[in-house]
Amino acid sequence: MNIFACVSHVPDTTTKVKVGADEKQIDQEGVTYILNPYDEFGVETALQLQEQHGGEVTVVCLGPDVVKETIRKGLAMGAEKGIHIKDDTVRDSYGTAKAIASALKDKSPDVVVCGRQSIDYDGWQMASLLGEMLSIPSISVVSKLEIADGAVKAERDIEGGKETVETTLPVVVSVQKGIYSPRYPKLQGIMKAKKKPIEEVTPEPWENRVEVTKLEKPPVKSAGKIVGEDASAAKELVRLLHEEAKVI
Amino acid sequence: MNILVFIERRDGAIKKPSLEAAKAASNIAGSTVTAVALGSDASDLDKLGGYGISKTLHVNDAQLDAYSTTAYAKAIAEAANASGSDTVFIAATAMGKDLAPRLAVKLDGAVAPDVTAITEEGGDLIATRPIYAGKAIETVKVTAAKKVFSLRPNVFNIGEVSEADSPVETLSVSFSDADFAVKATGTSISTDKLDVAEATAIVSGGRGMQGPENWNLIEDLAGVLDAATGASRAVVDADWRPHAEQVGQTGKTVSPTLYIACGISGAVQHLAGMSSSKCIVAINKDKDAPIFQVADYGIVGDVFEILPALTQELKQFLGK
């Protein structure tokens, strides 16, 4: 099975986001980058599929040279090789998907796995974009995946429950927490990852279709009032919720 | 400006976020709004007039009664073309988030996903969307000719609904088997539990609840308020609660009218997921907990004393 895990290089979840001088991007100072947490589930899913069905896992990432570090994290988890789509610009989701689809289209993927969203731009788009661009099925926000004899059965999270979706290979899936717990890279895996091949690909230039005109911090909420320090405050809280906040 | 709104239905009922999207579209100055609904059920489609829809295109095909990302994207793209709409609004639900990118590729356009405000400026639609789980807000403009916006549920107000009916026209779309390459074959939805992403009130618990056996206190309070129950990442990771309840950067981002955080200290990832709630109440014994920084009202104290008292007071107040 020819499996591709698409990963994103994102600021750590503990990052205190500051707006950069251009007011379009975040201030990079002091920001640590990690493998997008949802893509860790993606790499793990890819490795599980490889263990079940054989074949190999390739980690794919778009961005400047520094994203190679993130590709290496996927390789340290156990993937065989990487594809680095080298791009120094800030690409929108459509352009990112276009570059990935173009890198994958001649490689006959059986399964392409992404995380449900990157935790920086929170777009939730990649699986459906790639599926349509590659003209193959896609299933997003998958928390359970079964593949047998070319048939795909997945459970995806929907409001208040799960939806079972069926299709056939090849397929693009985006995965959700709950599918498989990501393994921690072992020291040996980290050492091996340094020697694994990363193919560098240059994408076609892209003119963004979604233009960011401004980036700002959300309005700061000032700390509210402390209503009380024990159960006797409950009555006053109910009054405030009704009369002041008007939410009940 | 012609805008197409996709009307999502599950089990025959029109989803509220689609009505929010219809109202948001009709609130855009100078807009003419067409709706598209899929599947064999025509009930209530004429009522969409009350939400500012001028007409509804109904792709009346029983094959569409079950969700199919591929067939739905095709049908909506045809409706966009048939109605001359360069702009499509879709509620950013599980279905909408899955559909919007496919639709954008079919239309050779682009998506502004999960937006929380849209205004018209000089003929362009300008949208704002939270990124980094709400730690920053970006303002975006779709520069492609065809634009898809997915709208975050619970954010756009429906406001007044008129009695006006609107016409429903059948739109025929011919499908091949390949269009149904991906198909939903079943759903399991727990009908007695509200989802945090859809709820207008949420009662969430964190480590301060001390164990899953104490969740009856959260559930009792949620029951009185018809609220969904939420959880912090710590308690989901500890397997006290299911991941579907997790609020925060690696869970769900929510914007309910009322959010009550019980025994949650307020890690930056949690705050990112809930701080856009309209009214936040925090109950925590640590007066220095970061959750109090975003709370409108706080009670510094023991959740095990305060929750039962609050449930009782609300029961009385609401006459339950």
Report on the structure:
The complex is a heterodimer of chains A (248) and B (320). Chain A has 248 residues and is of the alpha/beta class. Chain A is built from 6 helices and 13 strands. The mean pLDDT of chain A is 96. Chain B folds into 2 domains: 2-180, 3-Layer(aba) Sandwich (Rossmann fold); 201-318, TPP-binding domain (Rossmann fold, 3-Layer(aba) Sandwich), CATH 3.40.50. In chain B, helix 2 packs across helix 3 and helix 4 packs parallel to helix 8. Chain B has helices at residues 16-26, 69-82, 94-106, 215-225, 233-237, 268-274, 291-294, 303-318; strands at residues 2-7, 9-10, 13-14, 32-38, 55-59, 87-91, 110-115, 117-121, 124-131, 136-142, 147-151, 168-170, 183-189, 201-205, 228-231, 258-262, 279-284, 297-300. In chain B, the strands form 4 sheets. In chain B, strands 7-11-6-1-4-5-12 form a 7-stranded parallel β-sheet, sandwiched between helices. A 5-stranded parallel β-sheet of chain B has the order 15-14-16-17-18. Classes of the chains: A alpha/beta (248), B alpha/beta (320). Chains A and B meet through helix 3, helix 4, strand 7, strand 8 and strand 9 of A and helix 2, helix 3, strand 7, strand 9 and strand 10 of B.
